[in-house]
Amino acid sequence: MMAAARVWDAEILPSWESMRNAKKTRDLWWMGLPPNVRGRVWQLAIGNDLNITHALYNICHERAEERIKFVQEEGVVLGHTSSEGAAGQHEPSNKESSVKVIKLDVSRTFPHLCIFQKGGPFYDLLHNLLGAYACYRPDVGYVQGMSFIAAILLLNMDVADAFVCFANLLNRPCQLAFFRMDEHLMTAYYRTFEEFFKDSLPKLCAHFISQSVTPNLYLMEWVFLIYSKSLPLDVACRVWDVYFRDGEEFLFRTALAILKIHESVLLKMDFIHAAQFLTKLPEDVSADQLFKEIETVKMNIEKRGFHAVHNFFKDLHTGNS
């Protein structure tokens, strides 16, 4: 890993635009980014199409602080909230302000690390980032589960850079479909996944259909929250590494690999047990084991790749021709 870090530092990062798609870079990337370069690579790979500056973060943070004070005094709602989040039906909540939902969610973010809870070194930083985002995008606001994505970014970069990455990441089509709760776009992703599921694991797919185990039961938390809640932190970071290299297709390859690893167990389960299993995966799968399975997953059906299949279902479900 130290040797890899030297290559990233000396060869790849100084010549990012010319080196990012080189075979040497892609091969190193697949093996996992060294912790000391991970944050820098993520920032470059995510990009900043929204042209967010650190100054904008500071403005949004200040506004969030003002709103928090106002909420405490007047009970005013800050932006849109969703109090159910990724694990189930998430209707907008008018009963709680974003401030209250953020406070609750932060306390439940990676509790085993003891750094995001009150008194921990990242408690205020996570609050600040999420509050600033709710001010920056009041149309999206705060949705439960966002705190896990923000927390992983904060573990790898400072708060202003994390805000830039967070906003750009949540603006990607896959994440935005969920956080905006766009049923048509989400259905297109589910239908796309089902096509590749049926092709890759026909036996398990048929079993899931017979037991009414539908993709929305598990993909919502896996894919839309980028495995931040579903996999051990070190494994999730490896998934994030390659997601930023390959795009949203990789998130669905990962889902199929997880199902493949647990196929023999899942084939014996009814709806209740399968749903429980898929929403709380065993933590004994290593990154190496997962990536070995991901390598075997081919996203190609009759010469149609992921994006072609997804575009077909997106047009079908959004009424585009």
TrEMBL record:
The entry lists its GO molecular-function terms as: GTPase activator activity; small GTPase binding
Q: Which InterPro entries match?
A: Rab-GAP-TBC_dom, Rab-GAP_TBC_sf, Rab_GAP_TBC_domain
Domain (Rab-GAP TBC): residue spans on this chain: 32-247
| Pfam families registered for this protein in UniProt | RabGAP-TBC
Report one GO cellular component. Answer: vacuole
Which SUPFAM superfamilies does this one have? Ypt/Rab-GAP domain of gyp1p
Q: Which GO terms describe its biological process?
A: vesicle-mediated transport
The protein's name: Rab-GAP TBC domain-containing protein
What is the native source organism of this protein? Arion vulgaris
